[in-house]
Design brief:
The protein has helices at 38-46, 90-96, 137-143, 159-169; strands spanning 3-4, 18-21, 35-36, 50-62, 67-76, 113-117, 132-136. It is α+β, with helices and mostly antiparallel strands. The chain folds into 2 domains: 3-83 and 173-181, no CATH class; 90-157, Orthogonal Bundle (DNA Binding (I), subunit A).
């Protein structure tokens, strides 16, 4: 069993503790950035699926018999080719809409947003790019199961659209060690 040290208590509040690079040295994904929690990073190291590039300086975990530094940046041993097609996901919908509720036009943090079906599922609406939008919790409650078209009209995004949304996220600070690997 892995136990945390006193120094790691503050860092554990972050959900993205370790950057994962593809076999070519670039992040697996920019949308959202490919990062995992410390437990997943340690598992990847022990299963020999990754090479450690950098470790956190003041963060280690302990087992009953050993102490390990927690990785900050790891690289997959193999290169995985990915399609340029934009995958439909909750995070990508938020990036497409730039973390803005398309009903009240306010910008929110990810934790305060929901995905809203323009044509509600109860009325036959599907879950796809053309029928979902980013919505704040209060607008989602007010809308309920009504059909209200958001402005601007939703569309399937390109990688460029997601890059615009990623710039909104840049307010979130990344590890300084990660900066040289994140080229947007």
């Amino acid at each position: 069993m892995i136990k945390k040290t006193k120094k790691s208590c503050m860092i554990l509040l972050m959900s993205n503790d370790c950057l994962i690079l593809n076999g070519n040295g670039k992040p697996l994904s920019y949308f959202p950035l490919s990062a995992v929690d410390w437990k997943t990073a340690v598992k990847l190291v022990f299963t020999r699926n990754v090479i450690i590039i950098k470790e956190h300086k003041d963060w280690e975990v302990r087992s009953p018999s050993q102490t390990f530094k927690v990785p900050s940046i790891v690289m997959l041993r193999k290169y995985y080719k990915f399609s340029k097609k934009v995958k439909f996901s909750r995070s990508n919908v938020f990036l497409r809409d730039m973390f803005t509720c398309l009903y009240c036009k306010e910008v929110f943090e990810k934790k305060d947003l929901t995905i809203d079906h323009i044509i509600p599922k109860s009325k036959g609406g599907e879950t796809n790019w053309m029928n979902v939008t980013t919505c704040c919790k209060s607008c989602n409650l007010q809308k309920a199961d009504k059909i209200i078209n958001p402005s601007p009209e939703v569309k399937k995004p390109s990688l460029r659209d997601l890059l615009k949304g990623q710039k909104v996220v840049e307010a979130k600070k990344f590890e300084t060690d990660w900066q040289e690997y994140i080229v947007a």
